[in-house]
Write a structure and sequence with these properties.
Elements (H helix, E strand, L loop, with lengths): L12 E3 L2 E3 L6 E5 L6 E6 L3 H18 L4 H17 L1 H12 L3 H21 L6 E4 L5 E9 L2 E5 L7 H12 L3 E5 L5 H14 L6 E3 L4 H10 L3 E7 L2 H14 L2 E5 L4 E5 L5 H13 L9 E7 L3 H12 L20 H17 L2 E4 L18 E4 L16 E7 L2 H9 L3 E2 L1 E5 L3 H10 L4 E4 L15 E2 L12 H5 E9 L13
Parallel strand pairs: 7-8, 7-10, 8-9, 10-11, 12-13, 12-18, 13-16, 15-16, 18-19
Antiparallel strand pairs: 1-2, 3-4, 5-6, 6-21, 14-15, 17-20
Bound molecules: 2-aminohexanedioic acid.
2-aminohexanedioic acid binds next to loops.
Subunit structure: Homotetramer.
InterPro entries: Ald_DH/histidinol_DH, Ald_DH_C, Ald_DH_CS_CYS, Ald_DH_CS_GLU, Ald_DH_N, Aldehyde_DH_dom, ALDH7A1-like
GO molecular function: aldehyde dehydrogenase (NAD+) activity
């Protein structure tokens, strides 16, 4: 269809401001999950490529850190403007490589634009602190210093937004970046690197190395000159990275899965709750870390909610995301589809009741794609696997409860803690919920997706390791606090001793 937007047949790495072939000259086909059309070939780079990128980044970073932060920020303003100009093309390419429907692709690109302008503003802040010294004629302050070379590893489900959450704060803070994008979605990385190239970012400050986690990712994690790893992806991979970084005392920021729930209380606006559930469970075909995959519903409204959900689910149009009328796109690849199918089987064996969906769409119009029908289970219990494990597909399970307190307990009774939501009209429950829901993000009267970039993004427990993407908190990942003492007394003053 619009494959003309993609000029390249084979992508190259972006190292030291140049487009270069990977050392091993190996490639993998990137396919559109909506129709299996081949979009491009992505290089599977080797250790040598990573080493070159890190060396380059190390040199470039020394100079970049000396550029005043407001000037560094100007590059991000230009990046934001270029993204804005190309928003429609970027969105269409994003839909082709990832599958998400075009409206959502536009939303994701917008998220990146927002991040550019927000982090550009940070270039005129990057606030430190001044603190009174315990001694006379002595000045004490804490400043943010860049960490050096940072490694970012980004997923296929938000290939441009998450890349901006990590690279923009890193760059404005004076770091250089080595970036490994997901091999399923390299085109967003290619487009963003081209935009950086045009924005006037000095060579070597951003480097893109395409390839696998086991080769490129692993080399980055072990490279002594990469001082921080920022990763978003699966729980298994994140845990392995954390262990490896732990051995090296390397700073690591992890954003992993979720098992996010919408709580629907007996006083909820059921029509609004239905809309919120539909959007956060089936948008992006459920392939968001923040996707709703559990609905914890008060038993008094369970049946009415089921009816409403079923009737609205029937209206969901599924198909190629480039068609503006479609609301649900394909699943990223065969592996993703198989995992979803397994969970459907598990759910049925566990005794949950399948009310809708549960199957691969294989009619003629879906023949060449990777589509799964939006699925609703009911009468699930909190301990079932379908109510505990991340499925990453358009599958949602209703869990009936008897009280608000029980709802909170069920919400918190999972390994993850990314996002949660409660639909209620009771102001006391609103405030109790924001206090008691053990997740990094809490919504009231909205679904579990839709985080805004100037607020911290991340979660508790198995979702991460205490760091946050986006928001001002992201700067904590990409800077070190440096304590600076200036003694202007002209004599030696010993802290803790010469205090009288
Ligand atoms: C993700 O799924 O990893 O809050 C990111 C949201 C989006 C970001 C999702 N703004 O759903």
């Amino acid at each position: 269809m619009t494959k003309t937007l993609i000029q390249e047949e084979k992508l190259m790495n972006f190292i030291n401001g140049n487009w270069v072939n990977s050392a091993g000259n190996q490639f993998k086909e990137v396919k559109n999950p909506a129709n299996w059309e081949t979009l491009v070939q992505v290089p599977l780079s080797s250790e040598a490529d990573v080493n070159e990128a890190v060396q380059t980044a190390k040199e470039a970073q020394k100079k970049w850190a000396l550029v005043p932060a407001p000037q560094r920020a100007e590059v991000l303003y230009r990046v934001g403007m270029l993204m804005k100009e190309r928003k429609e093309d970027l969105s269409q390419i994003l839909t082709m490589e990832n599958g998400k429907v075009i409206e959502e692709a536009r939303g994701e690109v917008q998220e990146g634009i927002d991040m550019a302008f927000y982090m550009a503003g940070e270039g005129r802040r990057l606030f430190g602190q001044t603190t009174p010294s315990e001694l006379k004629d002595k000045f004490a302050m804490s400043v943010r210093a860049p960490v050096g070379v940072v490694g970012i590893i980004t997923p296929w489900n938000f290939p441009i937004a998450i890349a901006t959450w990590k690279s923009f704060p890193a760059i404005v803070a004076g770091n250089a970046v080595v970036w490994k994008p997901a091999t399923e979605t390299p085109l967003m990385a290619y487009e963003l690197a081209k935009i950086f190239e045009e924005s006037g970012l000095p060579k070597g400050v951003l480097n893109v190395v395409f390839g696998s986690g086991s080769e490129v990712g692993d080399t980055m994690v072990h490279h002594k000159d990469i001082r921080v790893i920022s990763f978003t992806g699966s729980n298994d991979v994140g845990r392995t990275i954390a262990a490896k970084c732990g051995e090296q005392l390397k700073k690591v920021s992890l954003e992993m899965g979720g098992k996010n729930a919408v709580i629907v209380m007996d006083d909820a606006d059921l029509s609004l709750a239905t809309e919120g559930i539909l959007w956060s469970a089936f948008g992006t075909s459920g392939q968001r870390c923040t996707a709703c995959s559990r609905v914890i519903v008060h038993e008094d409204v369970k049946e009415r909610l089921e009816e409403r959900l079923l009737s609205e689910m029937e209206k969901l149009t599924i198909g190629n995301g480039l068609d503006e009328t479609n609301k649900v796109g394909p699943i990223i690849n065969k592996g993703g589809l198989e995992k979803i199918q397994q969970y459907i089987k598990i759910g049925q064996e566990e005794g949950a009741k399948l009310l809708a969906g549960g199957y691969v769409l294989d009619g003629e119009e879906y023949a060449n794609g990777n589509y799964f029908a939006p699925t609703l289970f009911t009468d699930a219990t909190p301990d079932m696997k379908i109510a505990q494990e991340e499925i990453f597909g358009p599958v949602v399970s209703l869990i009936p409860v008897k009280s608000f307190e029980e709802a909170i307990e069920v919400n918190n009774g999972v390994e993850y803690g990314l996002s949660s939501s409660v639909f209620t009209r009771d102001v006391n429950r609103v405030f109790a919920a924001q206090r008691d829901l053990d997740t990094g993000i809490v919504y009231v009267n909205a679904g579990t997706t839709g985080a805004e970039i100037h607020l911290p993004f991340g979660g508790t427990k198995g979702t991460g390791n205490g760091h946050r993407d986006s928001g001002v908190a992201a700067l904590d990942v990409f800077t070190e606090w440096k304590a600076v003492y200036v003694d202007y007394s002209g004599k030696l003053q010993r802290a803790q001793i010469d205090v009288d």
